[in-house]
Give the backbone structure.
Amino acid sequence: MKKAIVIFLLAVFGFFLAVTFLDPDFEAERNHNGVKNFYLDKTVSQLKTANTVTAIVVNFRGFDTLGEVTVLFLAATALGSILFKKRHHIGDRTVLMPASSIVSAGSKLIFPAIILLGAYVFIHGHLTPGGGFQGGTIIATGFLLMLIAYRDFSISHNVLSVIESFAGIGFVTFGLLGFMNGGTFLQNFMGTGVLNDLISGGVIPVIYILVGFKVAAELTGLIYTILHEKG
Amino acid sequence: MVGSPVLLIAIPLLAAFLIPLFGMVWKESVRIVPGLVLAYLTYLSASLYIEVINTDTIVEIIAGWRPPWGINLVFSPLTGFLTTIMTFMGFIVWLYSYRFKRNVEFEAAKKYFIFLMLLVAGSVGIVITGDIFNQFVFIEIVGISAYALTAFYTGRDSAEAAFKYLIMGSLSASALLIAIIIIYSQLGTLNMAEIAANIDNMNPYYRIIAMIFFIIGIGVEAEIFPLNGWAPDAYTEAPGPVGGAFSGIVAKAGIYAMVRMMFTLFDIAGPMKILIVIGLITLIVAETSALRQEKLKRMLAYSSIGQMGLVLVAFGMGTKAGVFAALFLMLNHAITKPMLFLSGSFLTFNTTEKYIKQITGMAKKMPVVSIIFVLGALAITGFPPFSGFWSKMAFLSAAADENLLFIMATILIISIFEVVYYFRVINRLFFFEYDDKISVEPHKPGFNGMIALFVLAFIVLMIGFYPSSVTGFIDLAADDLLNTHQYIDKVLQLGQTIIQ
Amino acid sequence: MNYLLFIIGFLLLVLIGTAVYAVRQRDLLYAVIATGVISLALTALFLVLQAPDVALTEAAIGVALTTIIFIITIRNTVRYEDEKDKK
Amino acid sequence: MDTTELIRIGVYGTSILLILIGLYAVLTKRSLIKIIIGLSIIDGGIHLLLIGIGYIKDGTAPIFSPGSENAVARMVDPVPQALVLTAIVIGFGVTAVALSLVIRLYRHHNTLKIDEIKNLKW
């Protein structure tokens, strides 16, 4: 009985999706004069940002990014709240597997390179693919590697929390600065420079670097919390 | 110019990032700062609302790009009305829970207040945003805060309730995303006004499918029938004041999103019938379930779902009178249901199961709280001269104008149901002797909690005796919702402030 | 132009195959690894479909972080969908 | 049928299949972790769908390199990419919260089977 209901539901769902997306008219009736060309055009001519996706994420739809950063912040906080234990003791770290000497030595070697790669990715977010989210997660994976390889590697929760808070405050403050200078929230109020220069695009790289710090701190904290949950 | 709508979002987010820093310096500040923020939001929202009523709708641009391209916030008589209610209720809930976990656990209290503040901020965001993807982001903010608040107590079955809520919430978020994909692919825009202006160019099949996915996506927050399985559990397991926040704030935001979508986005013939059908099913199922509940909070949760169904039916009539009645019902419910949750939470303070039989004879021990509870029960069932009476009258006259006799009869029968299950509680509360074996230990209510309850009770009485004090505002809000062209024009003709 | 078609077709087949495997596999650890493979295939597909930004994000979040938190959860709870499956 | 058409149908069809497979897992599986795996498969399908919407024939990535400032017409739509970026990060947050709930449920009930946890049946 239950199986039948599930299959019926799946069939209805699949039918709706297929009727929409696999219909030959779907492509033909599309309105191609949407916002796309405006974004591509303005990114080059006004924002002087090479990477259009970055321009959209940080400037055109920067409000979404603010919300998204908040979602990550909430997720990290919620994790701490849900896994909270009565007596405030931190359990042993979960050991995924005992790290051999090759792994630990190799991790030490790779770790700085990963951090450097992450920093490169978010500093060049407005020029090349990548940006704050990507760079931040790369840095977090670097810390994850160290946490797995060395049992006594630890990170201060307070330091992470301070970095996270300052990056978040910086984001909102830059938004409010635009509010005071140019008239609207998150407005690009700094000089935009020359396309494809490292220092170009006004506030876009600044905000994306702040996002990078925030994402890195949040994800590292999140992994740290969940790693210290021993059954 | 007193401020700008964007501050309604920016200030709580800024405060949320600041609170961990403040907490390191002065522990009490994690309680005070959210309260100050919510009080400021209430002030800002109320003053903006007055300005909007006297002058014109404010359309706020973000990042300097005018509406079809950038995200915009719309602060109109309708959204201002809802925002003011929500921020005010957020402040009341904060006031009630000010002493929450005091002197016990600092970390837990810090997180509780951050979640509460962002719950309010996210709900306000759902209401004032003018962009569908931005609305999705705010729905996720509300969702994650709500999951975390539901799972807040570790001792109870709260993780189950939160898990249920999370699965439903994220499935519906996926549906919402699919609807956004269909709309974006066909119209090439995400702006609500632009969508509303171009919706006629869209193939009707795609329009209907997108609308179905939208209903699934928003239905979880709006608590409509097949998607509200999470609600009774979440309301029961969450901390007492959070139940009030869910019914007073989150459900209102969900209903708004639903109604905005139906009235403005998908302006096709027939959607109103869908609203009536969904609303009636929700109403009947919820109210009949409420009759059978043994737990106080569960009963209140079902009652809350039922009221949401009633609101949807009223919106579904589609006429001016219907929308007026619906907004009036929303206002009354936003004030009365948190009052019931908060006073009920005081009555059952020292028990984790919250059975109705455990409050037997409590009226003699806690007379003031009991009287406030009764006031709320009378107001929500629609006894004159309390606030609920006027909204139910407005509803019935709106239905009578449209000759919807079946709906009128159903509402009257449902009202009898409501009277039955509320009087079951009142009967136990007042006319039974206090019994040590079944009743709980009375709890001495805190000073701040009592102030919150008194403020709410005052508002209920005020609306009850002077309904004309609010009907003017509701009238303007109803006009605003029905005038789709005005909404589109206001948003799209705002080409002056674009940066050159 | 045809080699592009082959790459995309191969990746799409990998996606569906791994998804079915992830749902049917009763050893949760393997199922989680299969989810990681789905993310990997998606990463390659995003790259082919000219979305390098998304590919980077999916590679870092989908392949690395999601998989690792799944594995930590399995370490802290149970490895098999059913106790009977334990060999 | 030309290449673009094939790619389009393949990508859309695969994402719809992924969504349905994930939904099947969420609705029928008895293990909590399996349910969350299903959710992340649904997410993957939706992200692929969104990227497929933006793809155009012979498109290039929406990044301007020196000397190619006039290549606008051939660029794929950047908006869905920005949306997917947001959606991936949000999805990760939700998955993390869900897994922490699973750990807590296991702490209480010592099982992850949905039938053995009271209040979780639906």
User: Anything to note?
Assistant: The interface with chain A takes residues 52-53, 55-57, 60-61, 64-65, 68-69, 71-73, 75-77 of chain C (CB under 8 Å). Helices of chain C lie at 2-24, 28-48, 52-76.
